[in-house]
Amino acid sequence: MDPPKGPRMLIARKRIEECSSNLADVIPRATNKRLADHNTGRLLLEECLVEWSIPIDSIEVLRTEERAPYLSWLDGVWMNQPLPDISLGHSGEWAVCALIEPGYWVGIDGEPSDRGIQENAFDMMAKGEELDWLKSNPEQAIRVWTAKEAIQKSEKKGMHLNPRDIDIEQYQVESFIHDGLMISIAWRDAGTAPRSAEDDLLDATLEAMKDNPDFSVGCKTTRNNV
Predict the structure, then answer these.
(1) What is the CA angle 41-47-52, rounded to 5?
(2) Structural domain of residue 183, as residue ranges?
(3) Segment 64-80, tens digit of pLDDT
(4) How far apart are CA 171 and CA 7, in angstroms?
(5) Residue at 222 is within a domain
């Protein structure tokens, strides 16, 4: 799928199936459907990372406190190359995935474009004038729904960001229909990235080196006595 104009992005979808992925989470007591949804999304992520030239055997998928997934180099790899941000979703028979270049956060959501949303659910995603507009334009509900889901993901807040409080016009978000699937992509400048154990160790080492010019790591051999 063609990404919107702006930062470098990769957008893809994959039909949900029973499969496995090296990047999949362990989900105890998950139903077969839940496993298929999750594993297909992670397998699609693998394929996107290969396309992006990211070595999948050197990374893992972690989650923020709000459960937003992000990429991290595996402990012991000692890589500091910035990684793209990711977003995943699934609905019906499709999983969707988006990657965006370092320095940005991205969110993606996809739903069947002909999926109907009952009017009694409109007040869960809109209020005030927007709610009145939705009631007059119910065919736009699925676009609004996916756009707000994508924004929630790009903000790394999920449902901690109430969709009723989201003004779509205040965000960078594009929605389009691809082969019967309504897809919304939202992106923004990246916020503070989660820290890894290696980040903390490197910072501690740097501080020790500043405080002690003779500080060395892991080896007593010096250039003068090799």
Answers:
(1) 120
(2) 9-210
(3) 988 899 999 998 888 88
(4) 15
(5) no
